[in-house]
Amino acid sequence: MEDVKARACIRKIQSCEEDQLDLIRGPWTVEEDFKLINYIAVHGEGRWNSLARCAGLKRTGKSCRLRWLNYLRPDIRRGNITLEEQLLILELHSRWGNRWSKIAQHLPGRTDNEIKNYWRTRVQKHAKQLKCDVNSKQFKDTVRYLWMPRLVERIQAASAATASVTSTTDTVTAQLSLRREVIGNEYAAQQVTPSYTPENLSTATAASSDSFEAQVSPVSDLTNCTYNNGFHVNNNSNPDYGFQASSQVDYSDLSDNYYDHRGGVGMDYQSSNYQPLLDGCDLSDNLLSAEDFLFLQQQFSFNI
DNA sequence: AACCATTCCAACCGCGGAGTA
DNA sequence: CTACTCCGCGGTTGGAATGGT
Question: Is residue A152 predicted with pLDDT exceeding 60?
Answer without folding.
Answer: yes
